[in-house]
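Thread: Newbie trying to understand structure tokens

Hi all, I'm a second-year student working on a class project, and my supervisor (Dr. K.) asked me to get a predicted structure for one chain before our next meeting. I've only ever worked with sequences, so writing a 3D structure as a token string is new to me. If someone could post the tokens and maybe explain what I'm looking at, I'd be very grateful. Here's the chain:
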Amino acid sequence: MKTDQEIFWAGDFGNNYVERNSDHSCVNNFSKILIANKISINSALEIGANIGLNLDAIKSIFPKSETFGIEINKKAFSILTKKHQGWCGSIYEWNSNKQYELTISRGVLIHQNPDLLPEFYAKLYKHSSKYILIDEYFSPYPTEVTYRGHEGKLFKRDFAKEFWDLYPSARLIDYGFFWKHDSCLKSDDSNWFLFEKNKY
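---
Reply by user tm_fold:
Sure, no problem. This is what the structure looks like when written as tokens:
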């Protein structure tokens, strides 16, 4: 593991997160993004999949889709791989040439070491054959937030703009906001951005 943030999530805090976040569906969130934009996919990769709730939602909407999750916490990974293919370890150490029609970062970029974000964006772009979904806390400028009493573990910024600056050929399909008070969704307040990858 390369960073303090990865060690943090691979350990006891990550184990406890599994217990706190294991009983909800994200189908409505993904329906709002994908179905509303008439997007159909046959495969999806999630970076930082935890126990696979987002991939579960993908499978519910597209039952025949191939789903793959990368997860650093072994407890979460053991649950994830009961339902999906996966790889346990650091995203920065994962090497593959495989592409998926949709790559996803949902509530994971906020927990990365800011110095390594370009490497993370590169993984999202490289392994997508069609679409990239970024759904994270938003701030117009980089800012650190104390996270459950811990420093250096949560950062907000305009992730989508940084991604787009690096890959300007990507086309923005749609963007929106998940409001935590919407009873139809299971989400914190977050902004999502759906890009289409330009193959040319």
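A couple of things are worth pointing out once you decode it. The longest strand covers residues 128-136. The domain at 4-196 is CATH 3.40.50.150 (Rossmann fold). Feel free to ask follow-ups in this thread.
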